[in-house]
Amino acid sequence: MLKCFYIFKDKSRSRRRGESAPELSNESRRDGNSEGKRVAKSTGSVSSARSIPEMYREKEQNLRVFSLSELKEATRSFNRMLKIGEGGFGSVYKGTIQPPNGRGDPIVVAIKKLNTLGLQGHRQWVAEVQFLGVLEHPNLVKLLGYCATDGERGIQRLLVYEYMQNRSLEDHLFNRAVPVIPWKTRLKIILGAAQGMAYLHEGLEVQVIYRDFKSSNVLLDEDFNPRLSDFGLAREGPAGDRSHVSTAPVGTLGYAAPEYVETGHLSVKSDIWSFGVVLYEILTGRRTLERNLPVMQQKLLDWVKQFPADSRKFSMIIDPRLRNEFSLVAARRIGKLADSCLNKIAKERPKMSEVVQILTQAVQESEETTSLDITGPGPSRPTQLASPKQQLKKTIAETARPMRPIAQA
Ligand SMILES: Nc1ncnc2c1ncn2[C@@H]1O[C@H](COP(=O)(O)OP(=O)(O)OP(=O)(O)O)[C@@H](O)[C@H]1O
Ligand SMILES: [Mg+2]
Which residues are in the Protein kinase domain (predicted)? Predict the structure, then answer.
C-alpha cells in the first residue's frame, strides 16, 4: 500500500456530536466554492445548483444508522479473523448484519472502523458519508450506513459498505498470491472505473473531484465489476469558470498530479493524472514505485518513458504475467491515452468522457483481435481468454487469507 500524504493547513470548525447525523466541515465551502452563487457547470449560468451537503439532507434517510453493539455483533467484536484490509485510516472487517426490517437473509458487509480520530479523520468520515449518501452509480461503492458514537470510551466512527467479493484492483495486479487478471478483464475494470469517474466529473449538478484515484480504491465485485471507494478526500469542484480550488495537498504519493502537489491547485484534471498512473499499472503490472528493481526501473512513470507507445519497444513493458495474451493495438491505444492523461499541462489532459470513449474503442479492438504480437517474431499462441471468473474463483478460495498487498513506501 502506498501511504496517503496529509499536509493540512487546517483549523476547522467542524462539530462532533454523539450518535449524530454527519455534518460536513466548512471546508467544501471555502476555497473555490465560497463566493456568491453557485454556477451550473454545464451552462455557466448562475443557477441554484445545490451543494453536496444540501443534497445530502434530502437523502440522508436512505442511510442506516447502526449502533456500535450491532456492528460488534456483526464482526464478532472486530475479530482479527474477519479483518480483510487495512488502510491509512483504519481497518476493514467482513461482517454480517440483519436486514433493515429484520426479515430475510442476513447481509454480508464490509465494515470500516476508523482509527482513533483526529480532526482530519472525523472530517474525512463526514465527507465519505455525505458524498456516498448522495452519489449513485453502478461504478461507485454503496454505503449502507454508518455508526457514530462519542461515548466514555472515546469517539467511534464506522462505515458499513456492501461487501466486494474480489477486494481491490491493487490486490489483483500486484499480489503474486492472487492469479493474474486477464487482459479483457483489466479493460473492463478500467472502463468501469472511468465511467464512475466521468459521473463524478460530468454527470452531476456539481462537479466532484475524487482526489484519491488509485488501484486500491477500485473495488471488484464477484463478476469483477469495478466500484470506486473512499470518498473521504473528495471535494466539490470550483464554481463558475474557475479552473481549480486551492487546498492543502492530500492524497497518495505516486498518484497525485505534480501541479497539485506543488501548488495545491486542485481540479478534475488532477484526477485525470491519477487515472493515467493506474492505466500504466494495468499495462505493466508494476506499482508506481518498485523499490526492489534496479534504480532505472523503480519509478514507473520514468521507466515507461523509454518505451513510447508507438515504438517497437513498447510491447516490452506489458505485464509479463499476461503471457502475450493481449491486443497490442489496444495496448498502444491505452499507452497513448495514459500519456495524454499524464500531460504536465493540466488543461491539455483529456476529459473523463473522452477517456471513456477511447477505452470503449480499446475494448472493441480487444474483442476483434485477441493475441497480437506484431512487434515480436511470429504470432503468439492463440488466445483462450477464459472467463476471468472461472479462472480466479478457484484460486481466490484456495488463497483465502488476510489480503495485504506487498508493503510499500
Ligand atoms: N467494501 C469492501 N468490500 C471488500 N473489501 C474491502 C471493501 N472496502 C475495503 N476493502 C478492502 O480493504 C482494503 C483496505 O481499504 P482502505 O480503503 O481502508 O485502504 P487503502 O485503500 O488500501 O488505503 P488508503 O487508506 O491509503 O486509502 C482494500 O484494499 C480492500 O482490499
Ligand atoms: Mg481505500
Answer: 78-363
Long-range pairs, 52-60, Cβ under 8 A, ≥24: 52/24, 52/28, 52/130, 52/131, 52/134, 52/206, 52/208, 52/236, 53/23, 53/24, 53/28, 53/130, 55/134, 55/206, 56/24, 56/129, 56/130, 56/133, 56/134, 59/133, 59/134, 60/21, 60/133
Of 163, 188, 213, which residue is a domain's last?
163
Judge whether 398 lies within some domain: no
Give the chain's domain count.
Answer: 2
Residue range of the domain that includes 237: 167-368
132 shares its domain with 209:
no
Return the CATH number at 100.
3.30.200.20
Identify whether residues 354 and 261 lie together within a single domain: yes
The predicted-structure confidence for 22-46, as pLDDT tens digits, reads as follows 653 333 333 333 333 343 444 444 4
How far from 156 is each of 11, 19, 77, 145, CA to CA, in Å? 21, 10, 14, 14
Residues 240 and 154 in one domain: no
Ligand 1 pocket residue status of 84, Cβ below 6 Å: yes
Q: Is residue 188 part of a domain?
A: yes
- Shared domain for 219 and 129, answered yes or no, is no
The yes-or-no answer on residue 212 being catalytic is yes
Residues of the chain under the 50 pLDDT cut: 1, 3, 6-21, 24-46, 371-409
Does 113 carry a binding-site annotation? Answer: yes
Ligand 2 centre to CA of 403 (Å) is: 13
Residue 21 alpha carbon to ligand 2 centre in Å:
23
Q: Do both 204 and 290 map to the same domain?
A: yes
Amino acid letter for position 379: P
Neighbours of ion ligand 2 (CB under 5 A): 87, 217, 230
Whether residues 175 and 217 share a domain: the answer is yes
Catalytic residue among 31, 171, 212, 339: 212
pTM for this entry? 0.82
- State whether 102 and 171 are in the same domain: no
**Is any atom of ligand 1 closer than 6 Å to the C-beta of 92?**
yes
Nearest to 162 by CA among 94, 231, 85, 91: 94
**Is residue 90 situated within a structural domain?**
yes
Ligand 2 geometric centre to CA of 392 (Å)? 22
Do residues 226 and 219 make contact, with C-beta atoms less than 8 angstroms apart? yes
Spatial distance between the Cα atoms of 304 and 2, rounded to a whole number of angstroms? 20
